[in-house]
């Protein structure tokens, strides 16, 4: 099934993150689809732990320079790109000094969740959407992995609902047993600034509450773990989207 344009959006990917189920799975899926002749691209956050020198990241000036407004504050969007080591497969990194320079992922040195994890997720989701449009590359399939990516279908079907750019794109969501970390209570205010208010997750915002909500905005849901934790499995069961049990990377083409 070659000649499809497939976009993977993920919070983790090997070798940029090692020894994670999601990171390994996204890496295998992307390589499998790339090797079969598809036009594959990957987007992920440029967390501070990802070495720009080791992985040869460089800024794409023509894509950088936009500002994304988060809760009435302008935040500059920086796009960096690298080829997956040993492969001709491009990985794009969403970057911003305020949100992604820090060396930790979601917690400070005392183990407390960052107060702006919600802003970082919104910035990432909107940054991916705006950058794809600027690339003038329309994916046939967007495959989402990780809680930050789960905001993308919510934004596409609400904030961007009158934008026809992605009208023929199908959205696949892989659901993983990620940590369910609480988000700051100003999450509701941040999304309402973008005219997004009709979400259950805004009453008790957390990583997985957004994943649960996003299941209502996608075409296909795939189990990223063979057995999902209770709240995820309940939301998975209730969702109206087409569903697939856990698949290995070699079988993912069946979904597409």
Average pLDDT for all residues? 94
Cα-atom radius of gyration: 17 Å
| Silhouette | globular
What is the number of domains?
1
Helical fraction: 25-40%
- Can you count the helices? 8
- At CATH level 3, the topology is Rossmann fold
Order of helices and strands: EHEHEEEEEHHEHEHHEHE
The CA-CA distance between the termini, in Å, is: 9 Å
CATH class: Alpha Beta
Outline the low-pLDDT stretches.
none
Task: Summarize this structure briefly.
It contains eight helices and eleven strands. It is of the alpha/beta class and 256 residues long.
Structure write-up:
Helix content is 29%, strand content 21%. With 256 residues, it is α/β, with parallel strands linked by helices. The protein has one domain (5-254): Rossmann fold (3-Layer(aba) Sandwich). The strands form two sheets. It has a nine-stranded mixed β-sheet with strand order 3-6-7-2-1-8-9-10-11. A two-stranded antiparallel sheet has the order 4-5. α5 packs across α7 (207-214) and α7 (207-214) packs parallel to α8. The longest helix has 19 residues, at 117-135. It starts with a strand and ends in a 12-residue tail after the last strand. Residues 5-219 form the Starch synthase catalytic domain. InterPro entries: Starch_synth_cat_dom. This is starch synthase.
């Amino acid at each position: 099934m070659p000649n499809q344009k497939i976009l993977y959006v993920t919070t983790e990917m090997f070798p940029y993150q090692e020894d994670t189920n999601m990171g390994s799975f996204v890496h295998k899926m992307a390589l499998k689809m790339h090797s079969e002749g598809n036009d594959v691209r990957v987007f992920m956050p440029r967390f501070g732990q990802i070495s720009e020198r080791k992985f040869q990241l460089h800024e794409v000036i023509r894509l950088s320079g936009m500002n994304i407004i988060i809760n009435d504050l302008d935040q500059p969007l920086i796009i960096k790109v690298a080829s997956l080591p040993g492969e001709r497969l491009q990985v794009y990194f969403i970057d911003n000094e305020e949100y992604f320079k820090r060396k930790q992922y979601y917690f400070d040195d005392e183990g407390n969740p960052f107060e702006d994890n919600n802003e970082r997720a919104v910035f990432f989701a909107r940054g991916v959407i705006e950058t794809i449009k600027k690339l003038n590359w329309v994916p046939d399939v967007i495959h989402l992995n990780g809680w930050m990516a789960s905001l993308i279908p919510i934004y596409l079907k609400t904030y961007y609902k009158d934008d026809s750019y992605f009208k023929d794109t199908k959205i696949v969501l892989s659901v993983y047993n990620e940590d369910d970390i609480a988000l700051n209570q100003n999450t509701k205010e941040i999304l309402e600034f973008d005219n997004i208010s009709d979400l259950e997750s805004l009453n008790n915002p957390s990583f997985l509450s957004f994943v649960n909500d996003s299941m209502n905005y996608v075409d296909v849901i795939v189990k990223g773990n063979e057995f999902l934790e209770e709240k995820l499995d309940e939301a998975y069961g209730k969702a109206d989207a087409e569903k697939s049990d856990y698949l290995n990377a070699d079988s993912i083409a069946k979904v597409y």
